[in-house]
Structure formats: C-alpha cells, structure tokens
Write a structure and sequence with these properties.
This protein is mostly beta strands. About 0% of the residues lie in helices and about 50% in strands. The chain is built from no helices and 19 strands. The radius of gyration is 17 Å and the shape is globular.
C-alpha cells in the first residue's frame, strides 16, 4: 500500500510498503529519504498519527511504529506492537480521536488501540464480525467492508467498551468486498470489490436508516 505524511515544515513524504520493508520518499523531489528493511515481513498497510507511522506487517510481528520527526535525514523504528502474537493485514487511524483500528488475524473483527502514548499503544476491547478485510475510521465512526459476506457495516465507537452497530448493508450481486472510503463531508461512501468484473460503488449514507 502507500500513504502520505506532511512534516511540520510542510514537506510532503510518500510512504511505500514493500515485500522487504518500508520506503520514505520526498514527494516533491522524488528523492528517497530512508528505507527500513524488514526481513520476512510484507508491509501491507501504513498510516500516520502525529509524527509516527504505523505499518502493518503480514506476516510479521504486528504493528511497526516508526518515528518520522528526523526526516529528511532519517526515520527510526521505536517499537513493534503485537497482542498475543497476532499480525495485522490492514489498519485505519482516527487521527481526530487518537485510536487505531486493526483487522485481526482471522479477519473476524477489528481490534482497537489507544494511541494516547503513540510509542506505547494500549489494546481496548474490539468488535467481532463474521468477516472483515479492511477498516475506515473517522470521528469515532468505523466503516467495515466485510469480504465474502458481501456487506459493509458502520459502527459507532464513541464508547469503546460498548460498540454499537449502526447499519449493515448488503451489496447486490457482490464480489469480495475489499475496501470502503468515506467522503470528507460524510455524505458518500465508496466501496470496492476485489473481484474481476465488479465496480466501484457510491452510496448515499446521509441517512443510515436508508442507505
């Protein structure tokens, strides 16, 4: 996957996941800034919170936490987080609230990390679903594409101890429901299906009772 990060001096960096590590590139000059090699780890997904990059390795040891504050000179791995040896395929970070949501190993739900201390995440109760591939999180709302279940769901995570399922929507004639992205104004959701011949779909989600 790939991600972007804006440094405090407004320099933009592209972050690329690779089979053997994570690459950091100045997006304006296209010059490499640093590369974190990781043997036997496929970096599937990366997102940033403050001056940290959280990289999901699958297979691997969990979430690799990388400090970006020393760019353009270098980046530094500060810790690797895992709970019970679980790896993570995909993740999403609610940067407004400071929580990360991780797809669990068996893809039967998502885990929740409190990032109050970005270098020492704290695991909170998660959510169990029948199937999950990815997550999208913003302002305590989490959207979940649900793979071969052919659905996507929306969760209210305001109370991390008591998540609330707001809606679950079936996709007609669906393939493998892979991804969901929410528009900045909260009115539209885009879903993709990782199946040949399927389409990107746009959903009006202003009224969760009538998606």
């Amino acid at each position: 996957d790939c991600w972007g990060w804006a440094a405090p001096d407004a320099t933009l960096y592209a972050i690329y996941g690779a089979y053997d590590g994570v690459a950091f590139v100045n997006a304006s000059t296209l010059q490499p800034s640093d590369f974190i090699p990781m043997s036997n780890k496929t970096i599937r997904d990366m997102q940033t919170y403050r001056n940290y990059c959280y990289a999901a390795s699958d297979p691997g040891d969990g979430i690799v936490v990388i400090d970006l504050q020393f760019l353009p000179d270098s980046v530094h791995v500060v810790t690797t987080y895992s709970a019970g040896g679980e790896t993570c395929h995909n993740l999403a970070i609610d940067t407004a609230r400071g929580f990360a949501y991780l797809t669990n190993t068996a893809r039967t739900g998502f885990r929740v990390l409190d990032l109050s201390n970005p270098e020492s995440p704290v695991e909170l109760p998660g959510v169990t679903t029948q199937e999950i591939h990815d997550v999208f999180a913003r302002n305590d709302t989490v959207w979940v594409p649900e793979g071969n279940r052919h659905t996507f769901s929306c969760w209210d995570m305001s109370d991390k101890q008591n998540p609330v399922l707001l809606t679950r929507v079936g996709i007609p004639n669906a393939g493998y429901v892979h991804d969901a992205q929410w528009s900045p104004n909260g009115q539209l959701l885009a879903t993709t299906e990782e199946t040949i011949g399927k389409t990107i779909k746009l959903w009006n989600v202003q009224d969760l009772g009538n998606v």
